[in-house]
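Need residues for this backbone.
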């Protein structure tokens, strides 16, 4: 279980729900991570869209994801001090996480010091509440593992 944060983060930008992403966002209300899969070629893709980026197929089905992956790339963002009152001034990690399903998702890695995040680190999904009941998909190190495992 990954409890995640309890409350929405002040100042967090919240993505709009589009027709293509509605099923994804709906699942996050129950802290479920789902991905769009193309029925024609049998591959997952990210981000949600009307047409498969691999084969241009348009029959899309949503499947539950494992919620596990590895850090593909990461950078530490140091927040400008002048905006600290709005966003807080803790550095945070922007990462590209490659999920078990083969898709890469731009996200934040939380739950450890930013400097500890490295390429190849095993991560799992965790959740941050949004103001409207949806949840943001974030990742944290898999408990009991270390980088490059
Ligand atoms: Zn396809």
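Answer:
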């Amino acid at each position: 279980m990954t409890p995640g944060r309890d409350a929405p983060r002040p100042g967090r930008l919240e993505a709009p729900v589009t027709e293509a992403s509605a099923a994804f966002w709906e699942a996050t209300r129950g802290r479920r991570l789902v991905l769009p899969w193309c029925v024609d070629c049998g591959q997952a893709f990210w981000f949600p869209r009307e047409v498969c980026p691999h084969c241009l197929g348009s029959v899309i089905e949503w499947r539950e994801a494992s919620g596990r992956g590895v850090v593909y790339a990461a950078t530490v963002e140091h927040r400008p001090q002048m905006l600290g009152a709005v966003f807080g001034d803790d550095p945070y990690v922007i990462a590209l996480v490659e999920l078990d399903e083969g898709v890469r998702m731009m996200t934040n890695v939380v739950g450890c010091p930013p400097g500890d995040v490295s390429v190849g680190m095993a991560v799992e999904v965790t959740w941050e509440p949004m103001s409207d009941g949806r949840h943001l998909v974030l990742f944290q190190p898999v408990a009991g593992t270390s980088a490059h495992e």
